[in-house]
């Protein structure tokens, strides 16, 4: 086994930012807004680095698809302990329509090219909440998948994954190569220390174009409209249960 | 023709010639700063920092051929005392970060912010009166203890500007932690960075950079605060010359209880090479706690920065190897002044972060609090407070980054500007936070709001690292010294009027015009952005008048100016305001030229600031030039004397008992 792990990291609007919809309802405002690494991607990177520290894998490669600024996100991964990065350049219109299908095609192509043993992704991104990339990547590669992972352990050429599902926890054993997606309780990502950020400057980030990987970025989706959720209406207080039933009937709720 | 001009302005000539003898050369010391009283902190500071004995006194003829016979200083603050404007270090606003440095810095800002948001608990640190253990560990891992140590010695090798940006973040969250870090690296081991030889750097810096060893700066003693030159701790060299024996005690040492490495200042008896008599001169030493004989007292209970450890440090027959001398034996005062001078910009940067934090709280409150039917930010009284708060922050921030930019560009003359920035930043931060509490009303007074802690933390900033009062004297005396040099040069020229007719005619005309309030052609047009022309003109006028009053004060008081503290304080206030005006003109000009989105807003800040600052300067100058100032100062002095004689308020109770 190559001992190489690919980790996908996505640059998203920072979770603390107040999102504003563009006046033309075509999307959200991203210009000048603070961006950072998707929190679930941070957990994915942390898991990969932990595996390397336990000497269970040999190399962690951080991958990001996007414009120039995606390199910042890769650098954060390098500062957390990834060994090198791959920046797949996607800009302009292509970037606006970039979604799980395109990213999973890219990840699949890279996994073959880099002879990856594992791909670890965040379970979903906090901007689009798709929760599809990991699954699609596994399908394209015909690899087993361990999604919503809250615990991962390597055992020879098998991976034991404890998954968080609606009913509780499910434990599965899958063979490598495999795709894993990180859920919230998998680990607590480390702080990038300043000396590590400085060391990360020396690590390499390779530049790749989707065309070089033979990936077609055309989107099968067209976003028609983006709008804010409806304003929350003020509540009404009622005195008795009869009043409550009456009001509910009035507004056609029952 | 020229001769006639010279003799017609005989009144002026006479005034210049009436300069007291001390200025007419023969004395080695420059201008008006008398060195007989070597214990005068400010003068020694000025001398030590400037470290140039007046060269103007000799070679009169050749020197005078060059204008005004003074080595042209690049410092703006020095130039205004001569009624000139040296723009090299102030325009354009410095942009010193390379692309790589900027990118690196951007990457550092996020994690530092995150650490202080999520790990550091300022309220807890304040309540415990120490920085929580896990926070200290986290800070060490973060690399926060060696920001400016070279990378090959375990540090981050940050430039001054990069350091300022990070220290700004710390200042915005927790000043107690800020002082712990600052006492360690900004002054604690700065001496090793600035004056250490390669062996000393290799030996000490690696462990200091990781925080394995903490450092402290030991200058202050029970009987020596502002009067640092009077310290009594002694370091006597052994007859074999291999070591020094250190004895004495220091008080109020930040990190005193935590440090392993101390930069200690002590008096070493030395033989004066010329006279042969034994003199006590200050020497700086690197002292390790492990040398034995070094003990520290319990942590002091303080008003603020409670998380920062402050303790007494005692040296009892400590054997300090001779190779632990920092710099030269006997050159310790210079080491101390340079260390303090080098770290001052950090304070302005940290405090600008603190102000941002206070302002954010005030804005949040004013935008959400409704009284009398409207949100309170709609009321004029609140609006004035908020506007002033943000102007003070804008000026402080601009000063911090201008000075760090100057330092990174290799400037060697920034000590007056650094002193100004410390005075300004500490007083601005105090006022801003005070007004923040006022805007927040009763809420501001409550512990939970977090602002009262900031207020308590800020009080010390006007006191330590050179009290603002002493620094004002330093600014004024430093300026008078250069102005005095210029006057001396002119006086030399007067001895040879024919040979210097052009120069003299020019100088006399200039003075005549200025006295009449006319412009002498000094202008900032072409330097400031055209949209700021008016503010530029206000500044120029103020500088011209300032030049006039400086000369008048020099001529009036001569060498006795050093005792005229009422005058010196007001002169310093003017210099501070003038530097502030120029700093915002520079920053706003840059924003306008670069078409920033906030350019018009910054223009407003700049114009408003210049209007008010110019008024203050004019008012102070008027007072200084008026006869009333004499009466005022005399009264103030008399009131204080009576008070001291009486041991308290003198007037009897209105009720008679």
From TrEMBL, chain A:
Ranges of residues in domain Electron transfer flavoprotein alpha/beta-subunit N-terminal: 25-217
Domain of life of the organism encoding this protein: Eukaryota
Cellular-component GO terms for this entry: electron transfer flavoprotein complex; mitochondrial matrix
UniProt keyword list: Electron transport, Mitochondrion, Transport
Entry's Gene Ontology molecular function annotations: electron transfer activity
Keyword Ligase in record: no
Cross-referenced InterPro entries: ET-Flavoprotein_bsu_CS, ETF_a/b_N, ETF_b, ETF_beta_N, Rossmann-like_a/b/a_fold
Localisation: Mitochondrion matrix
A GO BP annotation: fatty acid beta-oxidation using acyl-CoA dehydrogenase
Subunit composition and interactions: Heterodimer composed of ETFA and ETFB. Identified in a complex that contains ETFA, ETFB and ETFRF1. Interacts with ACADM. Heterodimer of an alpha and a beta subunit.
PANTHER family, alphabetized: ELECTRON TRANSFER FLAVOPROTEIN BETA-SUBUNIT (PTHR21294), ELECTRON TRANSFER FLAVOPROTEIN SUBUNIT BETA (PTHR21294:SF8)
Function (record text): Heterodimeric electron transfer flavoprotein that accepts electrons from several mitochondrial dehydrogenases, including acyl-CoA dehydrogenases, glutaryl-CoA and sarcosine dehydrogenase. It transfers the electrons to the main mitochondrial respiratory chain via ETF-ubiquinone oxidoreductase. Required for normal mitochondrial fatty acid oxidation and normal amino acid metabolism. ETFB binds an AMP molecule that probably has a purely structural role.
UniProt similarity note: Belongs to the ETF beta-subunit/FixA family.
Protein name: Electron transfer flavoprotein subunit beta
Automatic annotation (TrEMBL), chain B:
Pathway as given in its UniProt record: Lipid metabolism; mitochondrial fatty acid beta-oxidation
PROSITE patterns documented for this protein: ACYL_COA_DH_1, ACYL_COA_DH_2
Cofactor or coenzyme needed: FAD
Database matches in SUPFAM superfamilies: Acyl-CoA dehydrogenase C-terminal domain-like, Acyl-CoA dehydrogenase NM domain-like
Catalytic activity: a very-long-chain 2,3-saturated fatty acyl-CoA + oxidized [electron-transfer flavoprotein] + H(+) = a very-long-chain (2E)-enoyl-CoA + reduced [electron-transfer flavoprotein]; eicosanoyl-CoA + oxidized [electron-transfer flavoprotein] + H(+) = (2E)-eicosenoyl-CoA + reduced [electron-transfer flavoprotein]; octadecanoyl-CoA + oxidized [electron-transfer flavoprotein] + H(+) = (2E)-octadecenoyl-CoA + reduced [electron-transfer flavoprotein]; tetracosanoyl-CoA + oxidized [electron-transfer flavoprotein] + H(+) = (2E)-tetracosenoyl-CoA + reduced [electron-transfer flavoprotein]
Molecular function, one GO term: very-long-chain fatty acyl-CoA dehydrogenase activity
Compartments, record wording: Mitochondrion inner membrane
Chain ranges of the Acyl-CoA dehydrogenase/oxidase C-terminal domain: 330-476
InterPro entries linked: ACAD9/ACADV-like_C, Acyl-CoA_DH_CS, Acyl-CoA_Oxase/DH_mid-dom, Acyl-CoA_Oxase/DH_mid-dom_sf, AcylCo_DH-like_C, AcylCo_DH/oxidase_C, AcylCoA_DH/ox_N, AcylCoA_DH/ox_N_sf
Topology in membrane: Peripheral membrane protein
Any Pfam family: Acyl-CoA_dh_M
Ranges where the Acyl-CoA oxidase/dehydrogenase middle domain occurs: 216-318
Source domain of life: Eukaryota
Keywords for this protein: Acetylation, FAD, Fatty acid metabolism, Flavoprotein, Lipid metabolism, Membrane, Mitochondrion, Mitochondrion inner membrane, Oxidoreductase, Phosphoprotein, S-nitrosylation, Transit peptide
Annotated signal peptide: none
Occurrences of domain Acyl-CoA dehydrogenase/oxidase N-terminal (ranges): 99-212
CDD domains noted in UniProt: VLCAD (cd01161)
Listed EC numbers: 1.3.8.9
Domain ACAD9/ACADV-like C-terminal: from-to ranges: 530-648
Gene Ontology CC terms, in alphabetical order: mitochondrial inner membrane
GO biological-process terms attached to the record: fatty acid beta-oxidation
Chief localisation class: mitochondrion
Subunit and partners: Homodimer. Homodimerizes after import into the mitochondrion.
Function: Very long-chain specific acyl-CoA dehydrogenase is one of the acyl-CoA dehydrogenases that catalyze the first step of mitochondrial fatty acid beta-oxidation, an aerobic process breaking down fatty acids into acetyl-CoA and allowing the production of energy from fats.
Protein name: Very long-chain specific acyl-CoA dehydrogenase, mitochondrial
